[in-house]
Design brief:
The protein has 101 residues and is an all-alpha fold. It has helices at 2-14, 26-33, 35-49, 57-64, 81-100. It is built from five helices and no strands.
């Protein structure tokens, strides 16, 4: 069962957010997709993968403070509008370029 789950996880990552990883660090990615989504993913996956039953306290604390990632201007990093827009544009351009090859 674990081997199947591991292979499935690899497949999902390679064909979803994993494509962003050469261009976007994991903390930037978390802020891009939003900390509420990260929280929901952790709530769903952690009980199946490890002994953790809930998201990391840091994520919970940031959400309680209203720091949701790029959408709120703060998350794991500060996101002034121009910085967030630059990251989004750069990511989009690089992903498009990588798919052309």
């Amino acid at each position: 069962m674990c081997r199947f789950i591991g292979a499935y996880i690899d497949l999902v990552v390679k064909n979803s957010f994993g494509m962003r990883m050469p261009f976007l660090g994991p903390m930037e990615n978390a802020d891009l997709v939003g900390l509420k989504l990260i929280q929901q993913v952790h709530q769903f996956i952690f009980p199946h993968l490890c002994n953790e039953q809930s998201p990391r306290p840091m994520i919970e604390d940031l959400i309680k403070q209203g720091f949701l990632g790029m959408e709120s201007g703060k998350g794991l990093q500060n996101w002034p509008p121009e910085k967030a827009e630059n990251v989004r544009k750069n990511l989009s351009n690089r992903l498009i370029d990588s798919l052309k090859d």
